Each structure stands twice: as C-alpha cells, then as structure tokens.
Amino acid sequence: MKRKIATYCFALMGLCAMAQEAPSRLHIGGYGEAVMTRNFYSQSFNRYKMPENYAHDASHGRFDLPHVCVNIGYDFGRGWSLGSEIEFEHGGNGTAVEIEAEEAGEYEAEVEKGGEVNIEQFWINKEFLNGALNVKAGEIIVPVGYSNAHHEPMQFFTVYRPEGEATIMPNTWHQVGVSLWGRLDEWRYEAMLLSGLNSESFTAENFVHYGATSPYEFKVANCYAAAVRIDNYSVKGLRIGLSGYYGHTFRNTLRTPGDKYKDVTGALGIVALDFSLNRWNWTVRGNIDYAHFADADEISAYNQANWTHHKYQDGNPHHYSNIGSNALAYGIEAGYNVFSQIRALREKNAKMFVFGRFEHYNTMAAGTYKAMYGYTKKYRCAVGLNYSPIKQITIKGEYSYRFFEKPDNNGLAADSPLYVQPYNNEPSVSLGVTYTGWFL
C-alpha cells in the first residue's frame, strides 16, 4: 500500500512538473497597427494620366488596420520547435449570405469587406550545434531587404512600412521553402531554396511585388529560386546586412507559353544592403535595393497579348502589364530619443523619438516602356514622432510629402500641345497606434 501511494505521489509530481514546463514551451504573441490617414491629393486612378484635371481635388481620409498578426510557437525539446504567424491585412476579409427580395428571394453571397487573411509563417525548425546551424522548413519569411527581415511596427518610424521596399518587392515576403541559418559569433547567416515568382503578376507600378501570391489553392513551382542573407554585429549597436535573390519567373504558371518563348526565362536578380544603428540615444536605419529583370520586353509583349485575349473573361487573376527591366529603392531614417534627456521619463523607460525619413524608388528605372511611366519615379520625405509609454506600445504621428521630378519642357508654353504636365505632389498626415510583444 505504501509503495502504491509513493508511486502515485511520484506520478503526481511528474504531472505537476510537466504542467509547469508546458507554458514555458508555448509562446503566444504578435503585433498590430491601427492607423488614420488624410491624403491631400486626388484618389483617382487617372491622376497620373491627366494630372492637370486632378490638381484641385478634395482631400480624402482613410482608417485602416494594415497588419494584425498572431504568432504561436512551441518548443518540442531536443532542438525541435514550431513557429507560426497568422496575419490579418486591412482587418481581414468578410462575406455574408443574404436573401435578395428584389431577385425572387434568391440566396446571394456578397463581399462585406476587403482585406486578406494569410498564413505568413508556418515552419518546423531543428537546431544543431547550439544554434550555429538550424534547418527550417515550411512557410518562411524571405529576408531580402530591410523591410522583409525587420517588418514589425517598432522596427521603422513611419506609420506605414517603408514605402520603397514595400512597393518594388513582396512585403512581407513569405513562401514555402527550406532554410539553413545560424549564428556564429558576430555573424548571422541564412540561405533558402524556394519556389520562383510568377512574372504574369508583375506590374509597371509595383514591379515584382505581387509575384509571390497565387490565385490557386497551391503555389506553382515550375521554377525555383534561392535567397541569402548575412548580418554582421561586430560594432556595438550596429547591424549591417547584405541580402540577395535569384530565380526564374517565366512559365511559373499553369499556362503554357509555347515554342515562341522557349528561350525566355524571366530571370530575376535582387541585391540589397541595409543597416541599423542604435546608440547614443539615436536610431538610424537605411537601405538600398537594386533589381534586374531579364526578358522584360518579351514578357511584357506576352502579357499584353494575353490581356487582349483574356480581357473579357471574368475572374482573371493576373495583371498583364508592361514591366521594367530594372527597379531600385533607397532610403534613410534617423530619430533621436528626446526623453533620454529627461531623468524622470528616462527612469520609466518611456521614449519619444523625433524622426525624419527620405526615400526614393522607381519600379521602371530602366526598360523600353520607361518613358510611359514617369510617375513610377517617386521621392518621399516624412517627419514625425514615435511615443512609447512602455516597450510594447508605440503611438506614431507623421507628415509625409511624396513628390516627382518636374518634366523638362525646354521653355514651352503651358498651352503648347508638346507641353508635358507635371505630376501633382502628394502630401498626407497619418496617425497610428501599434503594439509588438509576447503575451506568453
């Protein structure tokens, strides 16, 4: 009897130990952004085609939830772990079924709101050599460029993610693949094998931004790609990162182009350099990205031919747009924590960054169709405040000014038929509240 009681006691102690250990292995967190913007420029999709007609349009306000993410991770032990992230973009999407009285009481499904719900991450990781080597497989973030590797709202000052990188590349870029990564002293490395992008979804105004998405229940993988990233932390408070991507993008679809395009690959190469400095109460971040897209003219012609053939079909998921052969983006932002000079606030770990940002990007930096898309060459300045009463919460305010180069009219009068109208500048004011943290 005493032996049975002792056995039960040991079993109960074991269950208690497991119960105490389980929460420490489970991780739940996330981040989110709620924003309000007032744009003091026209919202018409034609504002770049005939800018003179939209110079005096009224301002326009927007409320949005750009990103709300829930992260769930679990440590299985013996080096095995799981990570996942569910992202609700712009508040998620919604549909509803209604009975239409005007249509003889038929049931009809209607879109209630726009937005997206994505599985942004879902991977299994195996750790070796105390973290010097890891193997990760599943839906993984592609860490090319600053904004993909560092996309949480406390990792940039502006209310929205850095505009240049978010325009020319997928953002946040995530795909199914296999990754080798690790940390060696002051170096972190990552190398990935993943499916290629789809050139049918490239556009003049967004370059390859939409290429990672798929309209199907799966991602087509007729083409493969590789991505690499290396970060160095040798200097105190400074991180410097170099990343790159290479892969073919043509034929990565269910459609067969035919022998006419047998030599077309749509090879895409991207190289990006970025840094962040956190020292002396300053935070400074910068990036420069350059991309080259081979066979841009041939694929633009292919896209245009398909647009002509399929333009009357409903539900066509592709863009069929002209595409630039090169794209670039660069930017720098700097902020100073003014609360660091106020002892009472410094002791509470409250922060108030006064910041400025400048960036330039062009999705049609080179290519046959460059002259048709002068408005893709954009500049943007922003100034504002980031207030963090506690570490996990940041309230952001920003004034931004997007502008364009003035066309060279060589002294032509404004009423001349050869005169090129300048694009209207695009100022805006934005406010946002964000959080980032682990709850468990």
Would you mind describing this structure in some detail?
By secondary structure, this protein is mainly beta. The protein has 5 helices and 19 strands. The strands form 2 sheets. It has a 16-stranded antiparallel β-barrel. Strand 11 and strand 12 (238-247) form a beta hairpin. The chain is globular. Residues 4-19 have low confidence and may be disordered.
Largest sheet features: 16 strands, antiparallel, barrel
Strand content: over 45%
Q: What is the string of helix and strand elements?
A: HEEEEEEEEHHEEEEEEHEHEEEE
What is the CA-CA span between the terminal residues?
41 Å
* Gross geometry: globular
The average pLDDT score comes to 88
Strand order of the largest sheet: 1-3-4-7-8-9-10-11-12-13-14-15-16-17-18-19
The percentage helix is 10-25%
Class by alpha and beta content: mainly beta
